[in-house]
Amino acid sequence: MNWSLIWAIARKDLKEVSQNKAAVAPAVIVPVMFVVVFPLAILLLPQAFSSASGNAFSLQELEGLLQRMPPAVTQALAGLSPLQIWVVFTTGYLFAPMFLILPLMMASIVASDSFVGEKERKTLEGLLYSPTSDAELILGKIVASVLPALALCWASFVVYGIVVNLAGLPVMGRMWFPTAPWWPLMLWVVPAVATLGMASAVIISSRVGTFMESYQLSASGVVLVLALMAGQVTGVLFLSVPVAFLVGLAVWVVDAGLLWVGVRTFSRNRLFSRL
Amino acid sequence: MAVIETSGLSRAFGVVHAVRNLSFALSEGEVFGVLGPNGAGKTTTVRLLNGVLKPDAGRMRVLGLDPATQGKEVRRQTGVLTETPSLYERLSARENLRFAGTLYGLGRADLEARVNAQLDFFELGPRADDKVGGFSKGMKQRLALARALLHNPKVLFLDEPTAGLDPEAAHQVTQLIEQLSHETGRTVFLCTHNLDEAQRLCDRVAVLRQGGVLAQGSLAELGRTLWRGLWVEIDTQIELGTSLRRDLSRQPGVQRVEGEATRLLVQLSREADIPDLVSWMASQGARLMRVVPRRHTLEEIYFELQEQPEGRPV
Which residue among B223, B250, B268 closes a domain? Predict the structure, then answer.
């Protein structure tokens, strides 16, 4: 395996994607919504209503949900004021799965485009004639997709941390974010999910006929994360440090299998048979 | 040793036989043309020979390697100009060449030198840092050719190099190919349905139809195979008399005499009969102005071959 070839393919794809406004625009707009607009609205609106009406902030609507949370959450929230509970519970817990959606969203845009996009732009044939092995070709495409997705997620995480801490400062009185479970989430689970999403999307892209077909199939991966999010909200699954580690491990095992199958089954012969 | 050699090469896509029982050999420095209508199997042959498609049957060797199992090694030593230029339009000409050079394992210093040399040779230097999306078709084709040659391949595959180009750009690309093949001694495998281009560039041609070879050889060989004997145009200063014309048709090697007045068309068994014919006519007092063996054009050969009944290779 020649990693310089894999890196060359990845670099070329990154350069191409960066020149594509249709790919860059959603990659900027959606994270800005997730990590700036939504958290600001969630943090600032209750503070504004509370001070405007002169009434103390109440958690009546959330009580049922909080009761269903595991003991670790209720312990973390113990001793906090209702407004502080609102800040920590929403931005510290409920928002976590958003960071799993981001790489999958990137997967549906960037990775779906990888092979089938080259085919549609009539550049695939030239690439397939290069002296790269089939494995180097597909790994290059996956690396090219995973790296920007991870960079986007981590950059979004930094911005989110700043927004949450600053907007929550009047309520919390200190910088409280990120809490412990966020580190394994961002450094362990998110890369695993990004690799899962990208590898699936690239493999799908190498087997379908059009970008739209690839995009729709890849976007269905987001549904899995929405299920995870629903689990989070209902208290079924809480991403504590050990749970995050175990979830990440499970996803990495799936990734390893997926990459193995992807590399073993990818073939120029099949691609050319359909060109 | 043949640079490219195939024997009984076949590949089907479902019920369609893209390539059927293909056998040919190319020697070093040869320009070999593969002619045929769309769907004749030309592009599939290029793909098979570069190891990006697997054959269903048959044997092939490129530079002594088996493309089916050593595709990466084969592709390292071949350059391919595909029918569509396959260029990244959002990248500049220089970036396209750099990417290709990296895939061919060129070192950084060598890569920059070669990229600059190719850009200069193909007269793309002034537009080197412009995005390829803004290039004309002719410029894209020149850049694609520059990319195919960047790693100095031993064998160059050109798939319809002038398709879709305006006459001026096509002429320019043909000139470049002529220069590249005959000056550098590189082996060239040229797929085309441009017969003038093939006649100008190729040492030998193979004519394909529905995946099979109808005929192959040099123009002279194909002409001799298709039309028995050789036609010679003879111009005389004064018209030949009836008896002299009758005697001419009885000379050794003469098969047929046509034409009228001062322009005769004489069919001979072989080219070597020409000197005897000229001597005899001169001895009979015929005042010869011009004796020219008539060469068949590739166009005549091609259409004659395409009209041959199916399943009857020439």
Answer: B223
CB distance from A127 to chain B under 8 Å? Answer: yes
The reply to whether A128 touches chain B by the CB within 8 Å rule is yes
Residues B158 and B256 in one domain: no
Partner-chain contact A131 B72, CB within 8 Å:
yes
pLDDT at A105: 79
Say how far apart CA B47 and CA B157 lie, in whole Å: 10
Task: For residues B164 and B263, state if they share a domain.
Answer: no
Same domain, B15 and B91: yes
Q: Does B89 touch chain A (CB under 8 A)?
A: yes
Whole-model pTM?
Answer: 0.80
- CATH code where residue B96 lies: 3.40.50.300
Q: Is residue B32 in a domain?
A: yes
Cβ B88–A4 below 8 Å, yes or no? no
- B312 lies in a domain? no
d(CA B22, CA B6): 7
Structural domain includes residue B311: no
Chain B contact set for A128 (CB, 8 A): 52
Which range of residues forms the domain containing residue B249?
A: 228-293
Residue-averaged pLDDT of chain B: 89
Do B90 and A20 count as a contact with CB atoms less than 8 A apart?
yes
Residue A235 has pLDDT above 60, yes or no: no
Which amino acid type is present at position B226? L
In this structure, what CATH number is given to the domain that contains residue B251? Answer: 3.30.70
Chain A residues touching B54 at Cβ < 8 A: 269
Q: Please determine, for residue A40, whether its predicted confidence score (pLDDT) is greater than 70.
A: yes
CA closest to B105 among chain A residues: A5
Quick check: A129 and B73 CB within 8 A?
no
Residues A127-159 pLDDT 10s = 999 999 888 888 888 888 888 889 889 999 999
Only one residue has tokens 């090694």, namely B73
**Number of domains, chain B:** 2
**Domain identity same for B275 and B150:** no
pLDDT digits (tens, 9 = 90+) for B199-230: 888 999 998 888 888 889 888 788 777 777 78
* B131 band by pLDDT with thresholds 50, 70 and 90: very high
Q: Which helix (H) or strand (E) holds B266?
A: strand B263-268
Chain A contact for B54 (CB, 8 A cutoff): yes
State pLDDT tens for residues B157-180.
999 888 878 888 888 888 888 887
Compute the distance between CA of residue A249 and CA of residue A243 in angstroms, rounded to an integer. Answer: 10
Distance from CA of A20 to the nearest CA of B (A): 8
Q: Is A5 on the interface with B (CB under 8 A)?
A: yes
Q: Are residue B135 and residue B166 in the same domain, yes or no? A: yes
The answer to whether residue B288 sits within a structural domain is yes
- Work out the burial of residue A38: count CB atoms within 10 Å of its CB; fewer than 13 is exposed, 13-18 middle, 19 or more buried: middle
- Report the C-alpha gap between A70 and A169 in whole angstroms: 26
